[in-house]
Amino acid sequence: MTSPDPTAASDPAPPGYDRVSHGFAPEGRAEAPPPVPLDAIVRDVVENVSAAAKAEMALIEARGSLAWHAIKWTSAWGFIAACALLVAMLAVAFGAIMVLAPHVGPLAATLIVFAALIALAAFTGWRAAHHWRDVRTALRRDLVHEVAEEE
């Protein structure tokens, strides 16, 4: 059996390999990078915060523009729908009066239709008020604080 060569361990690393291998640095510790000045760090932080604030403002402006566009067209189409509903309700009311008039007379027919429409308006107004409270609750920023005030 041959003995290992005692001079083999003292041979330098072959060229082309990094000088640091497995945590062993033959020339000592690597030089630490120079410290970054505090004013450069602060300047970078301010620039990043400024860029984030500008992006947030652009997002808020874009959302506002989209909301304005949606509100404009929603209100326009809603107005047309409300006008059509009004005309339809008038047609139903006149038709109901014409159908009831021969049986109970024109004044009683008008009062019956009027009472039915007032009852319908009261019910739908009550339901609208109920849902408006839900909308107000959904749009609150601080639900816990405002709920505590109402109690």
What does this structure look like?
With about 150 residues, the protein is mostly helical. The protein has one domain (about 40-150). It is built from three helices and no strands. α1 packs antiparallel against α2 (about 105-140). It is rod-shaped. The protein starts with about 35 loop residues before the first helix and ends with a helix.
Give the helices and strands, then pairings.
Elements: H1 38-104, H2 106-139, H3 143-150
Helix pairs in contact: 1-2
From the N-terminal CA to the C-terminal CA, the straight-line distance is 95 Å
Largest sheet: none
Mean pLDDT over the full residue set: 80
Total beta strand runs? 0
Count of spatially separate domains: 1
H-E order = HHH
Integer-rounded radius of gyration? 41 Å
Number of helices: 3
Structural category? mainly alpha
Helical content stands at over 70%
Mass-distribution shape: rod-shaped
Low-confidence stretches: none
- Percent of residues in beta strands? under 5%
Describe the structure concisely for a colleague.
Keywords: Membrane, Transmembrane, Transmembrane helix. The protein has three helices and no strands.
Which key phrases capture this entry?
single chain; 151 residues; mainly alpha; 3 helices; 72% helix; Holin-X, holin superfamily III
